[in-house]
Description:
The chain has nine helices and no strands. By secondary structure, it is mainly alpha-helical. The protein has one domain. Helix 2 runs antiparallel to helix 6. The longest helix has 34 residues.
Amino acid sequence: MPESSTLLLFTLTSLALIAVPGPAVLYVVARSLEQGRLAGLASVLGVGVGALIHFLAAALGLSALLTSSALAFSVVKYVGAAYLISLGLYTLLKRREKHEPEALAPRPLGSVFAQGVVVNLLSPKMALFALAFLPQFLDPVRGSVAAQALVLGCIFVGIAFLSDGLYALLAGGLGNWLRHHAGFLRVQRYVSGSVYLALGVATAFTGSGRK
């Protein structure tokens, strides 16, 4: 178990990182605006599971392999970018059925959850955090390194869940208000699609200067 001072420092570091919105936060906001608070919270759960997988991989030493191999890093980076870009294009180009309003048809919550997992699982930012920062808070003298990594990972995910959940509630509430205005129904699809495309481009260029 990490020392209390280590836990405090890790918590502060996590707060600083989470305070800067990344791909996961933008995904949560887009889903919340698109489908409301419940879908936003489902995406938050998915993002949290994706983060836990990263920390589990770090505990098992897999993140070191990912970031030490340029090929592995590039594969994850571009698969993630392609997924987000395809999601954006699908959102922008999807044809509306004649009986549907201009708003996007809601996705099943299970699908929203799964997409949240994939978005964070394929995030190079999350992978690099697990490798670059997590080892600094691990001390073999304190016991199992894997157990320490999982404890710290749970702390990080807990903080992120509260932060992302707040984004989901605020964006979902705003989306509900905007959906009562005709103009929003006309632009909602383009806003959400553009967010996904931006996420894909940002993911593609993450770590592009890496040697």
